[in-house]
């Protein structure tokens, strides 16, 4: 990306990746164009943003005139972040969702059990992470709703079936199929500056069914035939092998901090339901999350945490730390 992009631009870019409707896309594209530094090094990106804004405006106009939405399936974001589970038929996506959450998807030894995306909430300490089970991707088919789910996710888990010889081929087919779309997988999440509509979502490789006799040999073959630069977590969803390291890695990949609110009138903070914010977020961001009037009229905050003395008075630009207790004052 061009140098000197502002924090405001990068935040808008992140929100644009998460957008699930054309209206949301348009909002954040316009903010990106507004916030991008205007110099020669960004001329190409500015032009691409203007092109994309025009394209999205036409899409919105077409949808309004025809009454047809191009994105018919939407799952509201919940928890500390959203993780989408991907893979070919029988890779174990539903079994993993069942093992890590309280969701009860149908799990069966035949392919295409999952017909529509199904969310569940994965606990980690005192917060929850949203996991979404998805229909299988094959060389011949990908459900249209998958593009938006992958694009807006904070992380993707690409599962590989180590229980069958065709598991590696199916994993390759998933990657190849996605590479023909504008929602692809990578070691990091970012937008392509040559095409703002082309989005890459950070991914973990999750080889499954390592408990089976021939699985270790298939894992070695996977490394030989399909070398990927994604972090790898080998598991057995059915037997519970490797699930706790994966659970912890999922949460840490979200790179969030937990913040506990303390109303000025309360003696103790609410330690049961922390807010979660992207690392680098501020007290002003917290105020905006709670209520727009609080953000508008925020005077100061008192903070108890590892980076300050107990009850320190701070302004809106104070950067939140994990497990901070914050008391907002209007």
TrEMBL record:
Gene3D superfamilies membership: 3.10.20.30, 6.10.140.1070, P-loop containing nucleotide triphosphate hydrolases (3.40.50.300)
Domain G: 82-179
GO terms, molecular function: GTP binding; GTPase activity
Pfam families in alphabetical order: MMR_HSR1 (PF01926), TGS (PF02824)
Superkingdom: Bacteria
Span of domain TGS: 258-329
PANTHER family noted in UniProt: DEVELOPMENTALLY-REGULATED GTP-BINDING PROTEIN 2
Designated name of the protein: GTP-binding protein RBG1/RBG2
